[in-house]
Specification:
By secondary structure, this protein is an alpha/beta fold. 30% of the residues lie in helices and 23% in strands. The protein contains 10 helices and 13 strands. Strands 1-7-6-4-5 form a 5-stranded mixed sheet, sandwiched between helices. Strands 8-13-12-11 form a 4-stranded mixed sheet, with helices on both faces. Strands 2-3 form a two-stranded antiparallel sheet. Helix 3 packs across helix 4 and helix 7 runs parallel beside helix 8.
């Protein structure tokens, strides 16, 4: 019996209208457009403004657009998974809230947290449900409101992050396309170098933790950079080798958009021509779990059915991994 594969059959993204530029950031902290561009390659990032607006707003907009774009009714969806590190609240799951906001009532839903690697970890989870043969339409949304955990007095981290969401529809593949292979890793000792100090069960919120500004991203930049460069590049090269792929066989590398230097280093390690690397970090910054689907959304019209694509990510945890897939539809000919 032929193996059931899960394929991406639709992609949609959503970002807020407000653009926080480097020039505006320079009025808030001691930084400059030149400093930011040289170190990370970010020109602006989108910010979700307004009271009582959480990650579910981003995710619901991405999912609603995906349903419309693919001609899928909410009742057809079997499962919705949300990958996020900035849930609306500790519980219920942000996936539950997105389902409610988009009218998805016949599906179960849950969240996954693997930081910046969250989208690819959640993708393989969604793939497993489709490959089981029981689920026909699974939605995966990667969404983060990083502005909610960014300290805009910290010049080392506040230029990095933005808000956004990307959603994909996974269905059984009728041909030999879809997700083919994955390689994932974690190293829990990395938590010391990239985390949020307070707000969890270990250090619940107190007046002291709030005064100490411990509810924002804490990152040891140089350590994280070194790990990210080596691990993301190595796992991408490894998945190519075990699938007998050369750099010429790869149509697109879709790397997590954390730092332009990390992206460049990963491409060089894989021997990928820069023209085949998806990059939009200059427009959105690091949207954490949303970076990879936002790249696919931005580049969708340049994709072709059968394209060999490598998705690669590195994030807090530490977590890192790569996914190899064959693109399952031609956007220009999609009905």
């Amino acid at each position: 019996m032929k193996k059931i594969r899960a394929a991406i059959k639709g992609i949609n993204g959503w970002v807020p209208e407000y653009r926080l530029t480097n020039h505006e950031l320079a009025t808030m902290v001691d930084t400059s457009d030149e400093w930011i561009m040289q170190r990370v390659g970010i020109k602006e990032r989108r910010i979700l403004k307004g009271e009582n607006k959480g990650t579910s707003i981003l995710g619901a907009n991405a999912v609603a657009g995906l349903l419309e774009k693919t001609g899928t009714t909410p009742d057809e969806v079997d499962l919705l998974i949300c990958s996020t590190v900035t849930p609306d609240m500790p519980f219920p799951a942000t996936a539950n809230i997105i389902s409610d906001k988009t009218g998805i009532k016949n599906a179960f839903s849950f969240d996954i947290n693997a930081a910046c690697s969250g989208f690819i970890f959640a993708l393989q989870t969604a793939v497993s449900y489709v490959e089981s043969g029981r689920y026909k339409k699974v939605i995966l949304v990667g969404a983060d409101k990083m502005s909610s955990v960014t300290d805009y007095t910290d010049r080392t981290t506040c230029p990095l992050f933005g808000d956004g969401a990307g959603a994909v529809l996974l269905e059984p593949a009728v041909e030999d396309f879809g997700v083919i292979d994955h390689l994932f890793h974690t190293n829990g000792s990395g938590r010391h170098h990239l985390h949020m100090k307070a707000g969890g069960s270990c250090r619940p919120a107190t007046f002291e933790t709030i005064s100490a500004r411990e509810h924002f991203i804490y990152q040891e930049g140089q350590t994280v950079f070194k790990f990210a460069v080596s691990k993301m590049a190595d796992v991408s090269a490894e998945i190519m080798e075990r699938n007998n792929l050369t750099s010429d066989d790869i149509d697109w590398l879709v790397p997590h958009q954390a730092n332009l230097r990390i992206i460049d280093a990963t491409g060089r390690r894989m021997g990928i021509d820069p023209s085949k690397i998806m990059i939009n970090i200059q427009k959105y910054g690091n949207t954490t779990t949303a970076t990879i689907p936002l790249c696919l959304w931005d580049y969708e019209q340049r994709l072709k059915k059968g394209d060999n694509i490598i998705l690669a990510a590195f994030g807090g945890g530490f977590t890192w991994g790569a996914v190899y897939l064959k693109w399952a539809f031609d956007p220009k000919n999609q009905e």
